[in-house]
């Protein structure tokens, strides 16, 4: 046995499956118990899976929008019917409280429904205006599936996050090969097995399991696009690997989201939302609130409310716990360092402190007056730690909120200026007078800028992300002026130029 970079165990050789493949185990971070054993798929197996997916994808695309929607609806019903069974598996592999896993699946189902029922509207063939020159043509636009999409996912929302790509890629008519995180392989396998119950004919949605090397093999396997969700560091590696084969890539990476509290905000609601945004899922949320900028006149009251609300929060492994453990053991060191460096540099902990880090749990920590260049402000913490810094006005708040390389999500609490401040944030998504709400609106695109990546999942853009636009013109009749022939004569282009001058030159 040997530990991986993330602290998990790989078992080589002796417990290999019948064809000699190495296996690894997923572990319940609350108890250390083994949840399941999974193969470590190497490049040959990954390539074979993608090869098998190709004709499956062609078959799936050939079903058309209506039949695909019917199958995806059947899958949705199956997921709803087994929601508690699936939620229990998510709990076992991540350690998160049962209700959080249930909430994750509620959102999965809503997105799946939306993708299935909007694919035809967004992607289906439509006529577009031809413009002046090609008036004798019909122009049509259609978004065709790419073929096979490789999806690489993280562990923090092991069903919801990858389904933002999987559901939309499938609805668009692609086959999908999914590489789940090494921490949550069982969730990936469960998803694919449940899909195969409603689409038993061909391997349209399959899973390969293993570590980073398996993900890299998927990038090199000849898939038509890779949809990656994970850390910025891995995102760069994935992009570099995909560049070898010019494989297009969608990159959804980390964030350092800020919440701005304006002077006229509903402070009780803002404190409640800040706490949920920062501490739910033990802070292991890409669009979690990691920084709060609150304007000076209301800062004391806001912190008072936040501290009071945080006092009751307890991490634990029992069903009623507010937050679960830190799923990835290696993250505990990052959280500890961020808290320690902030306190060493003069910040104050108004909730928790150095002793809050007790692996596998971390108790909530609220830090105030943290230097802006401390890691707790500048880097993704990915734990139940939030920084609250006071600012003189909202302009300073916006400047600081935009002051990191990340640009994923954000939030604003303001009665009068919410929409204006939202627009000034360098972020892909912003919630006004709430947090995280954009993730639960399937029609809204999701994705970041800068170090948070590029490309969009969810919504119309998320469907188009897994397609190629195909433009077709069909000539209906001969034009009076036909410039694209060697027989056009000397006057055709001159007449056209005259026409254009009349039409556009004034
Ligand atoms: P990682 O970047 O560690 O891993 C993400 C996935 O990439 C895993 O499946 C991992 O496999 C795989 N992988 C690792 N190395 C390679 C490689 N060289 N080539 C291809 N694939 C590879 O992220 P985490 O799983 O730790 O997830 C947490 C991160 O995800 C946070 O930064 C969070 O902000 C971000 N995230 C972003 C979201 C968004 O939508 N923007 C949503 C959710 C999370 P393995 O696990 O086996 O190493």
Hetero groups in this structure are:
NADPH dihydro-nicotinamide-adenine-dinucleotide phosphate
% residues in beta strands:
15-25%
Give average pLDDT, whole number: 95
> Low-confidence runs (pLDDT<50, min 5 residues)?
none
Structure class: alpha/beta
Q: Architecture of the largest domain, CATH level 2? A: 3-Layer(aba) Sandwich
CATH fold annotation of the largest domain: Aldehyde Dehydrogenase, Chain A, domain 1
The helix content is: 40-55%
* Overall number of strands: 24
Enumerate the strands of the largest sheet in spatial order, edge to edge or round the barrel. Answer: 14-17-18-13-12-20-21
Give the CATH level 1 class of the largest domain: Alpha Beta
Radius of gyration: 26 Å
Shape: globular
- Note the total helix count: 16
Span between termini? 77 Å
Largest sheet: 7 strands, mixed
Region (Disordered): 1-22
Family: Belongs to the aldehyde dehydrogenase family.
Domain Aldehyde dehydrogenase: 20-472
Protein name: Aldehyde dehydrogenase
Topology overview:
Blueprint: E1 2-3, E2 9-11, E3 23-27, E4 34-39, H1 43-62, H2 64-81, H3 83-94, H4 98-123, E5 126-128, E6 137-145, E7 148-152, H5 160-171, E8 175-179, H6 185-198, E9 205-207, H7 212-219, E10 225-229, H8 232-244, E11 249-252, E12 257-261, H9 267-279, E13 289-295, H10 296-310, H11 331-344, E14 348-351, E15 357-358, E16 361-362, E17 365-368, H12 375-378, E18 385-391, H13 394-401, E19 406-407, E20 409-413, H14 418-424, E21 429-432, E22 449-450, E23 453-454, H15 459-464, E24 467-475, H16 491-504
Parallel strand pairs: 7-8, 7-10, 8-9, 10-11, 12-13, 12-20, 13-18, 17-18, 20-21
Antiparallel strand pairs: 1-2, 2-3, 3-4, 5-6, 6-24, 11-23, 14-17, 15-16, 19-22
Helix pairs in contact: 1-7, 2-4, 2-6, 3-4, 3-6, 4-5, 9-10
This protein binds NADPH dihydro-nicotinamide-adenine-dinucleotide phosphate (NDP).
């Amino acid at each position: 046995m040997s530990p991986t970079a993330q602290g998990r165990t790989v078992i080589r050789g002796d417990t290999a499956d019948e064809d000699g493949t190495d296996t690894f185990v997923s572990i319940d971070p609350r108890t250390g118990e083994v949840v399941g054993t999974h193969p470590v798929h190497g490049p040959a197996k990954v390539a074979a899976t993608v090869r098998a997916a190709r004709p499956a994808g062609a078959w799936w695309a050939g079903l058309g929008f209506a039949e695909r929607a019917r199958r995806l609806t059947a899958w949705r019903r199956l997921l709803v019917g087994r929601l508690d069974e699936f939620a229990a598996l998510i709990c076992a592999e991540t350690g998160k409280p049962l209700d959080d896993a249930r909430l994750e699946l509620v959102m999965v189902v809503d997105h799946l429904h939306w993708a299935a029922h909007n694919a035809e509207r967004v992607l289906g063939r439509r006529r577009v205006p031809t413009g002046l020159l090609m008036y004798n043509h019909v122009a049509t636009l259609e978004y065709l599936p790419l073929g096979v999409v490789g999806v690489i996912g993280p562990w923090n929302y092991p069903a919801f996050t990858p389904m933002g790509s999987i559901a939309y890629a499938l609805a668009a008519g692609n086959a999908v090969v999914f590489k789940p995180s090494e921490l949550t392989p069982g969730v990936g396998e469960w998803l694919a097995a449940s899909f195969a119950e409603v689409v038993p004919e061909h391997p349209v949605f399959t899973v390969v399991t293993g570590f980073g090397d398996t993900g890299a093999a998927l990038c090199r396997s000849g898939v038509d696009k890779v949809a990656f969700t994970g850390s910025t560091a891995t995102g760069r590696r994935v992009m570099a690997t995909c560049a070898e084969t010019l494989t297009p890539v969608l990159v959804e990476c980390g964030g350092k989201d800020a919440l701005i509290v304006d002077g006229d905000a509903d402070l009780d609601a803002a404190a409640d939302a800040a706490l949920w945004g920062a501490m739910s899922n033990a802070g292991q949320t890409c669009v979690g609130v990691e920084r709060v900028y609150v304007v000076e006149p209301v800062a004391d009251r806001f912190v008072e409310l936040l501290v009071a609300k945080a006092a009751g929060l307890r991490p634990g492994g029992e069903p009623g716990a507010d937050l679960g453990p830190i799923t990835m053991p290696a993250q505990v060191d990052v959280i500890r360092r961020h808290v320690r460096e902030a306190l060493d540099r003069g910040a104050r902990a108004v909730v928790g402190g150095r002793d809050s880090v007790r692996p596998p749990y971390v108790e909530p920590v609220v830090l105030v007056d943290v230097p802006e260049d401390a890691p707790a402000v500048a880097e993704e913490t990915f734990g139940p730690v939030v920084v609250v810094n006071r600012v003189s006005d909202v302009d300073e708040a916006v400047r600081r909120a935009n002051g990191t390389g990340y640009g994923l999500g954000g939030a604003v609490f303001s009665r009068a200026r919410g929409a204006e401040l939202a627009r000034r944030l360098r972020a892909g998504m912003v919630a006004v007078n709430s947090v995280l709400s954009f993730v639960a609106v399937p029609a809204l695109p999701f994705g970041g800028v800068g170090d948070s990546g590029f490309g969009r999942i969810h919504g119309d853009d998320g469907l188009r992300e897994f397609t190629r636009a195909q433009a077709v013109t069909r000539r209906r009749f001969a034009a009076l002026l036909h410039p694209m022939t060697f027989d056009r004569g000397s006057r055709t282009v001159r007449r056209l130029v005259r026409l254009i001058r009349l039409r556009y030159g004034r």
